[in-house]
Amino acid sequence: MNQALFSPPAIDRPDRAMHRVATGLLVGMAALFIMARALAHVHPAMGFVQAFAEAAMVGGLADWFAVTALFRHPLKLPIPHTAIIPRNKDRIGDTLASFLRDNFLVPHVVARRMGRLDIAGAAGRFLARPALGVEGRLRQGASRLVADMLEAMDEERLGGMAKGALKSRLAALNLAPLIGQALEAAMREGRHEAVIDTGIGWAARMLDSQADLIRGMVSQRAGKILRWTGLDETLANAILDGLMKLFTEMAEEREHPVRLRALEGLQALAHRLQHDPEMQAKVARVRDEIIANPAMQRWIDGLWEQARAALLKAARDPQAVMAGKFGEVLRSIGASMESDPALKTVINRFARRTAVGLTASYGDGIVKLVSETVRGWDAQTVTDRLEGAVGRDLQYIRVNGTLVGGMVGVAIHVVDVVM
Question: Domain residues of the chain, as ranges?
Fold first, then answer.
């Protein structure tokens, strides 16, 4: 599996401006403390300034240490219980995975969440009114995304997957019972008569076109005496006339014995196709031979190319697709999904069961993927990612710690003066 798929994207470092503000404020408090201490004899108010600056330095330094200790060793000193995130990277990944499993990837939680969503209504509005506001922009964005994905994917690999899936579906199709049921239904509705008539007509035409060939075969197999007397041609003509008369009678008489025998043969064939394992195996072998035929392979290749071209065309110009017959069908489906309560119920139930089924089947795999992905990142990557996400807020903590510490220092100095 390509590890690049699961590598974290490049991130920005924490807000440098806010970092400079917090550090500058700490340095300013140090300068203010030195100044106030030097001018303490000038005025009693300098004591309050000194107390503020002194406590602010303590608060700022404490919060700087706390914030820095989350991500690295302060001043690069291996102080115990610092660089908390890099040291606990694997535990963080496991905890995140457990959080996902316990709060999101639980079938009953997913079922409850999905029960509140009207998937059918949203999909219906999306299809029925393709050009409205946000939904129209969403559709255009989704179309561009689909087109970009189709063009970016490895055409040979994607085509191989699609064609392989089609071949697998064809190979898994049990054709014999389907053919038998179709044949049985056709005979039940009387549609087989036209097939038999077509077969009789084809046989009569073949007999007429091959009359000279049949006469030649009869003459070759006849004895010398028959050929010498000319009876071979008489015999051949009699055979041809008899067969032609048979075909004519079969075409005109629905109850002709030979025609009835043909019907019995079709009925037996329909039954064997549905119930005879040997016949089904023969049909399966024919199916496999057809699938393996190079002509069939070329047809599947062409089918995939046409499908891919159609998908790209539709993705690049969804409005043109929606303006045609296909668009009318989609809008009609969307309107039905919006207005038909029974259809809504069926679709929403299907969506809910699908989501729950996917969660039950792949939830543990997703949890494992999250845990293993975080474990696969190096400590610096995890540190940079988390610091980039919350760095600005952490610098605000330093600023707040400096100011709150200063105010606490003033309060303590006030109490000391009053007492």
Answer: 14-87+378-418, 172-292
